[in-house]
Amino acid sequence: MEICFSPEFKHNLRQLAKRYRSIRVDVEAFTTQLLDGEMPGAQISGTGYTLYKVRLKNSDNNRGKSAGYRVVYYLQTAEEIALVTIYSKSDQSDVSVDELKNFMRDYEATKK
Length: 112
What we know:
With 112 residues, the chain is of the alpha+beta class. Helix content is 35%, strand content 28%. It has a single domain, classed as YaeB-like fold. It has a 5-stranded mixed β-sheet, with helices on both faces. It is globular and about 40 Å long. The protein starts with a strand and ends with a helix.
């Protein structure tokens, strides 16, 4: 299984890492889960893509998953997963379907 990172995900991860020192460890635990074949999270409908949103615990604030991170990932094939975006729930309540479609268009443009 291969995990790719969209430019949006990389940018957001860098920005969040300035405030949350343990974010890379938290994300690494999630990617290990994906590599083990687990597909956590709820599927996001209305995008035209197989997108899932997952709640991740933020190790830097001890308030559980509800105040943690949200990761949106794209199940391209059975062997390829792309991490589309990440955001802190305390900064942003949700990502709209239109934003997700734009992220996916940008991601697919960079893959070509």
